[in-house]
Amino acid sequence: MPVPGLRFPTEVIWMAQEALQLLVSMHRIVRHLRRSRTTTLLHPTQFLALMLIADEQPIRIGEIAARVPCSQPTATTTVAGLEEAGLVRREPDPVDGRATAVVLTEAGAETVEASGRQAAEELANLLSRLDDADRALVLQAGAVLMRVTDDL
């Protein structure tokens, strides 16, 4: 099946190879950032859920499960752990008072801010290995990748 905008099979093969290289590189960077993170007390699923809650609050547990992604029981357990740690709290959903939504506590907001700052500093350290032109290219790609992920 032809890919729109690509004329030759070799272009499709090249794009797939480049996409795979990008995927592997992004995975390695994220893994490095997770390992170097100062908030190692959080499981990766808790960390992802906490970042999602920070961006989307108030948010229902079902939406957390869909967006992390994980199962509904895992999302419930994850939120319970974050709640026990004092990072989030449940409150009545503003749209449907019968349901509950999850929001950050002050401690949760501080954790998100500290984690984001630490990850940004560590990524800046990685990017400092590049020359100015390559660093600018990577940072410009960040804006493009945000558009790709906006609706994920």
UniProtKB/TrEMBL annotation:
InterPro entries: HTH-type_Bedaq_tolerance, HTH_MarR-typ, WH-like_DNA-bd_sf, WH_DNA-bd_sf. GO terms for molecular function: DNA binding. Residues 19-152 form the HTH marR-type domain. Coiled coil: none annotated. It comes from the Bacteria. Keywords: DNA-binding. The keyword Cytoplasm does not apply. PANTHER family: CONSERVED PROTEIN (PTHR39515), HTH-TYPE TRANSCRIPTIONAL REGULATOR RV0880 (PTHR39515:SF2). This is DNA-binding MarR family transcriptional regulator. It comes from Kribbella pratensis. The lineage of its organism: Bacteria, Bacillati, Actinomycetota, Actinomycetes, Propionibacteriales.
